[in-house]
Design a protein that fits this description.
Blueprint: E1 12-14, E2 21-23, E3 27-30, H1 35-40, E4 51-54, E5 59-61, E6 68-71, E7 79-80, E8 83-89, H2 98-101, E9 105-112, E10 115-116, H3 117-126, H4 131-134, E11 140-142, E12 146-147, E13 158-163, E14 166-172, H5 180-190, E15 198-200, E16 215-220, E17 226-231
Parallel strand pairs: 3-15, 5-11, 6-17
Antiparallel strand pairs: 1-2, 3-4, 7-10, 8-9, 8-15, 9-12, 13-14, 13-16, 16-17
Bound molecules: manganese (II) ion (MN).
Amino acid sequence: MSFVFPPAPTPSVPVLGRAERFPVRRVICVGRNYVEHAKEMGFTGREPPFFFFKPADAIVPVNAGETGSIAYPSLTRDLHHEIELVACIGTGGRSILAADALKHIWGYAVGLDMTRRDLQGEMKKQGRPWEIGKSFEQSAPIGPITPAAQAGDVANAEIWLKVNGQDRQRSNVGKLIWNLGEIIEHVSAAWELAPGDLIFTGTPEGVAAVVAGDTLVGGVGGLETLSVKVAG
Ligand code: MN
């Protein structure tokens, strides 16, 4: 097969302790999935889960022990951090039941759902799509994937983020409104999941702005820490 120009490279994420990388197909994100974060966004009560996507090449893979770099994006004056547990799908399927869902997860990683909050807010107000607030270049930094068998009990692990060494977000994955199995059940009812899909599972409270020069360090208990610097 030949192409009219060279195809873009396949986005991929490093795997802890392995030379092989995890090829990324899609980035699927869950909105408002921790109670205290829903509250700080102005919502209460358990609503059905909802989803948005980022392009696969929005990911910024960061190796273990290294600090990645993202550019401060265009148009915004309010770039927010959202630290999230990422479930990395190894086996696809549609209409997966929550009880069967965990075996579809190849591994876990720590990710950041970077958000142009001012632009997202404007789109919300107008009832328009969120893409301009969520789906932009370098909006999804992600650390190395830990295979599920080595990841421990991520469903009840601490999740945290520090900016320049100061605590910004701290909670527990056990506080997810929709847990990992339920997320996969809902996602796979709407879309056929495929190997390489990444699911960003939502962020706890404490989201706030970062500026050029800030260093973000985040983690989920049992997984490799993610470190990212915001360039100018
Ligand atoms: Mn998010």
